[in-house]
Amino acid sequence: MSKKFIAIGIVIIALLSAMLIYIDKTEKNLNNPKTAQTQKKAQNTEKYDTDKEQKTGNSETDNVVVGINVGDMAPDFTLEDLDGNKITLSKLKGKNVMVNFWATTCPYCKIEMPDINAFYKTHKDELEVLAVDLGESDSTIKDYIKDKGFEFKILKDTNGDVGYAYGIRFIPTTFFIDKKGIIRAVANGAMTHDEISQYYNALK
């Protein structure tokens, strides 16, 4: 199976899962925890495998494993933006980073993107937002973002390799990564501006 078909498959599965997450969120309000600690615990225990290597509590990054759970070192990647510039996650250490997985065919991604942009505009001195599109063409992405005024970086995961590395099963999914490259919170489903702020507090 070609990488292109793998990328398309990831998007289809992600969209179907996103619909289920949205319904579950509406009924139970699972994606609006009262505190950042609750958010972190919920995302870590409910959305990802819990049998990965446990952390020792040592704050030194040398003792942190690479993975997709809260407390793991975020997997590194290099992707191109729409202008052909290569962006490498590890080179952004020293700034907080939001890695948001999305696609133009995802309605809930479209709902949250204006709030992500508004939050980024007030935090851009300390924050980078990497909106990683899964498997779509340049023209499709450009047609969608035209006249939207988004100021954050939009990257192309053409083959779906980064989405696979991050275990993406539904979109939107957003990883909140601190200045040392460690994942501090994971949000599944569309976020409001207030929810983005709550998750972002986990980086402080």
From TrEMBL:
Keywords on record? Membrane, Transmembrane, Transmembrane helix
User: Which residue stretches does the UniProt record annotate as biased composition, category Basic and acidic residues?
Assistant: 43-55
| InterPro entries hit by this protein | AhpC/TSA, Thioredoxin-like_sf, Thioredoxin_CS, Thioredoxin_domain, Thioredoxin_ResA/DsbE_sf
Q: Write out the transmembrane intervals.
A: 6-23
Disordered as annotated region, ranges:
34-60
Query: Boundaries of each Thioredoxin domain copy?
Result: 68-204
**The keyword Transmembrane appears for this protein:** yes
Give GO MF terms, alphabetically: antioxidant activity; oxidoreductase activity
**Protein's name according to its UniProt entry:** Peroxiredoxin
